[in-house]
Design brief:
Distance between the termini: 68 Å
Number of domains: 2
Order of helices and strands: HHH
Mean pLDDT: 88
Shape: rod-shaped
Strand content: under 5%
Length: 77
């Protein structure tokens, strides 16, 4: 094989690898966004179906935005 052909194959491989990784990461990103949207729309449903995740999200939000969360009526109790 010539050096140019090898370079073209390597370039193609890098691009394909990047594209496949980007698709996989976008699936994970969409799943995370879905959890946050569901949490924002109806946090009680999330608390009923996945109480551990709900508690973890509530603790994190209270840690980052405690006064705002309490003012909006979100409590950990």
């Amino acid at each position: 094989m010539s050096g140019l052909f090898t370079a073209l194959l390597a370039s193609f491989g890098v691009r394909m690898g990047y594209n496949l990784a980007a698709v996989a990461v976008s699936v994970v990103s969409s799943a995370v966004a879905t959890v946050f949207v569901c949490f924002a729309q109806d946090h009680n449903a999330l608390a009923a179906s996945h109480p551990e995740l709900w508690l973890e999200l509530m603790q994190a939000w209270h840690k980052a935005h405690g006064p705002t969360m309490q003012a909006c009526g979100y409590s950990l109790s």
